Structure formats: C-alpha cells, structure tokens
Recover the amino acids of this structure.
C-alpha cells in the first residue's frame, strides 16, 4: 500500500505569500479575498444599484437608524423613497451624478444589510450606513460587508478609511476595532431649532469682521493650530483651501445658484493677528445650516460666543431653519458658547479610521 505524499508547495500556490514583494502580495490577497467572498456569498453580496435597491435600502435605514434620524430631523429616508419612485429617471440621475458606491446583502429578494463607500478627499475614503435588519443580526453579515468595502478601498489605493459611530454602539465598535479601526477624534453634534433662535442679536463687534482676500495665509496658520494632529494627519490642511479673492467670490455665486448654498465667514482679530474663524454654510431651501468655529488654543473662551452670534446675525435676511454644529471634544469652550445661545447637544460620535496598507 502506497502512501500519498504531497509536497507543501502543492498544497496552495499562495503558501509563500509572505515572501512575495508587497505589491504582488497585495494583488494576490485581493484576488483571493474577492474569490473567497464570491464563492461563499455568490447571491448575498451585491453591488448597490439605485433602481434595484434604493427602496429596500430606505426601509433598512429607517429600521436601523429611525430614532437617530428623528432626533436629528434627518429627511434622508423620505428623500430616498421619493427617488425610488423615479423609475428610469433614477438611472439617468445616477448617470449624471452617481450615488455613493456600496454593497448590499440580499436574502429572498430583500435588502437585509448595507455598507456605503465614498471618497472624502484625495486618498481618504468614508465608510457609512453600515446596517443590518434586526432579525438578521448575529450572523456576521455586517462584518462581511465591511470586509468587502475595505478590500474595495484597498484596490483603489485608499490610504485611510474613516467612519463615525456612536460610543453607545458597543457591537459596532467591537466590529471596527477588530478590523484595526482606531478612534482619532470625538465630535459633539449640536442643533439650534428655528424656535430657539436668540431673540436679540447684534451687529458685529469691532474686533470681529468679514474675511478679506489678504487673510488667506493667517487663516491657513490658524487652522493648522486649531485642529488636532490626528485630524490633520487624515485630512491635510492645504493652503489653497483658504484662498479668498475674486475667483472665490465667483465660485460662491455659482454655488448659491446651483447648490443652493451661501457661505458666511468671520474672523476675530487680536492686534494684527487672526486668532478665531467662523464659517456658516447656509442652505437656502432644504437646511440645515452648518456652523463651524475654530479658535487658536491660547485664545479659546474669548471668541466663540461672538463669532456664533455674528454668524447667526448674517442669516437675518434668510428664512429661519435649524442650524447644526459639529464641535470636537477638545474645544469645550465652543460647545458651552453654543449651548448658551440655545443649541442642544443631540449626539456624540466617535471618529475612527483605518490606515490601509
């Protein structure tokens, strides 16, 4: 009786994968992962297609995030259902302006899981809307979808994959940490409802003024000092983003005409130095307005309230709508100033990222 001997090199052509050069190894791992997922989940994981999946995705998002959407007055589900009725027009809209890329998990013709991917800036991608219907949870569906999204981002040369998650969602936190995601910032999301606007707002104080074209270098330096090192690492602060002048004015007018947005910017001056910056992006018809405040660390606690008042004053000629602010936890003075004006803290979110090799 002969014993069948199999040499290790015949067991798997990828046995020496670790010895391969990095680009070759990455490509082989990518192909292996894709083959494995398609072999074991051939009918479950599908690329998101708006005309096929949008209605089911709206139901999934509503059942997974309904309370949170209601708390933030987010009309996302209603808008998705309206678009799902467009029929062939939805394909045309997708061809003109593509929907976020994503994957869905299908069972018996129903969308039971989802993950979306979008390009944030450069080689930074965002993972969002990770959801599974309650009756299908505990089967690893979310993990399979997230793994597929990570692999897609890797194949497309992403460096960082970022996401936001509630600190109370321990299951999601465990899922992300298991895959190497790390928290780099905590955000407080605050809202000011139209009914809660301050009754009395006043024009700008002398040391708070509108942004000028000559402010660009100082604005860039201010943002470098006010944002955390972890944030700057993932979202580099580029000087070109703070150029102000004729062409930026033209772009703002175009944005107002086609994107229904107006931008108001204020700075706080101490002597000849800009030490504080506030920006409000006003949505003319759909809301909410988005407010942000940045103050040099050694000047915090002195400018936040005046900047917020000035930005709200800028909206005096527009219809009142809710105002949203997202403030990092390392800037509590801004949170306190906004709460003094009637803003309410709606939720706290952990920002996590995965560095993709």
């Amino acid at each position: 009786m002969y014993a069948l001997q199999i040499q290790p090199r015949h067991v798997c052509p990828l046995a020496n994968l670790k010895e391969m050069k990095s680009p070759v190894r990455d490509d082989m791992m990518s192909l292996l992962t894709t083959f494995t997922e398609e072999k074991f989940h051939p009918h479950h994981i599908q690329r998101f297609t708006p005309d096929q999946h949008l209605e089911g995705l709206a139901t999934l998002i509503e059942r997974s995030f309904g309370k949170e959407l209601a708390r933030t007055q987010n009309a996302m589900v209603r808008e998705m259902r309206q678009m799902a009725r467009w029929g062939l027009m939805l394909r045309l809209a997708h061809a003109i302006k593509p929907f976020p890329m994503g994957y869905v998990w299908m069972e018996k013709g129903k969308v039971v899981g989802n993950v979306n991917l979008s390009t944030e800036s450069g080689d930074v991608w965002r993972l969002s809307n990770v959801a599974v219907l309650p009756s299908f949870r505990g089967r690893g569906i979310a993990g399979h979808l997230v793994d597929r999204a990570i692999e897609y981002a890797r194949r497309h040369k992403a460096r960082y994959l970022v996401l936001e998650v509630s600190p109370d969602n321990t299951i999601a936190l465990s899922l992300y940490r298991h895959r190497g995601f790390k928290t780099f910032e905590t955000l407080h999301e605050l809202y000011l409802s139209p009914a809660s606007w301050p009754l009395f707002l006043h024009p700008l104080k002398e040391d708070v003024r509108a942004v000028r074209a000559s402010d660009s270098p100082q604005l860039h330096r201010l943002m470098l000092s006010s944002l955390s090192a972890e944030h700057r690492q993932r979202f580099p602060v580029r000087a070109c983003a703070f150029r102000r002048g004729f062409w930026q004015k033209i772009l703002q007018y175009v944005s107002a005409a086609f994107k229904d947005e107006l931008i108001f910017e204020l700075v706080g001056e101490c002597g000849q130095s800009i030490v504080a910056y506030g920006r409000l992006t006003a949505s003319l018809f759909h809301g909410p307005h988005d407010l942000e405040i940045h103050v040099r660390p050694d000047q915090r606690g002195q400018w936040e309230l005046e900047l917020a008042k000035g930005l709200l004053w800028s909206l005096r000629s527009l219809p009142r709508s809710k105002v949203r602010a997202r403030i990092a936890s390392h800037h509590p003075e801004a949170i306190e100033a906004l709460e003094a004006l009637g803003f309410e803290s709606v939720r706290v979110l952990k920002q996590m990222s995965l560095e993709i090799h």
Summary: DSSP finds twelve helices and twelve strands in the chain. Confidence is low (pLDDT under 50) at residues 1-19, 33-40. The longest helix spans residues 50-71. The longest strand covers residues 110-121.
